[in-house]
Write a structure and sequence with these properties.
This protein is an alpha+beta fold and about 150 residues long. It has a single domain, classed as Gcn5-related N-acetyltransferase (GNAT) (Aminopeptidase). It has four helices and seven strands, in the order βααβββαβαββ. The chain has a seven-stranded mixed beta sheet with strand order 1-2-3-4-5-7-6, sandwiched between helices. β6 and β7 form a beta hairpin.
Length: about 150
């Protein structure tokens, strides 16, 4: 498995994973626009030409926001999400970002445990942030020194 920057060839597989993993998935067009977005950095974990997982972010004025993180159900619990987030943080830091913020469903204990392991701390809560089902989103943040 390797981690690389998202390319147009990855978009259809990422869109399929979005549909499998999220109740409000991004569509192909939205994902494709991120390839060209100068504020965006999306990484994919690939094996051959198969996308196993991905993480996306946008950065404005040195602060980054994680948009999406997903791993194909057949490849979960193998450390792929951790490798993706770690690679994202490294790339963002090299690019001049000072921090990474994200929202996670309040009930998503597995994701919250991963983020805590990686040094994220809870800094707030967005009431009813998620729909289908409606749920609060915990706001987590990690800062680093350049």
């Amino acid at each position: 498995m390797t981690i690389e920057t998202m390319k147009p060839a990855h978009v259809s597989q990422i869109a399929d994973l979005e549909k499998r993993c999220f109740s409000a998935p991004w569509d192909d067009r939205s994902l494709a626009s991120e390839v060209e977005n100068p504020l965006a950095l999306w990484l994919v974990a690939v094996e051959g030409d198969r996308v196993l997982g991905y993480v996306g972010s946008q950065t404005v004025l040195g602060e980054s926001d994680m948009m999406n993180l997903a791993v194909h159900p057949d490849f979960r619990r193998q450390g792929i999400a951790e490798k993706l987030v770690t690679a994202l943080i490294s790339a963002l830091a090299k690019g001049g970002s000072r921090c990474l913020t994200l929202e996670v469903r309040a009930s998503n204990a597995a994701a919250k445990a991963l983020y805590e392991k990686l040094g994220f701390t809870k800094v707030g809560c967005r009431k009813n942030y998620y729909s289908r089902p409606k749920e609060d989103g915990d706001i987590l943040r990690k800062e680093w020194n350049l």
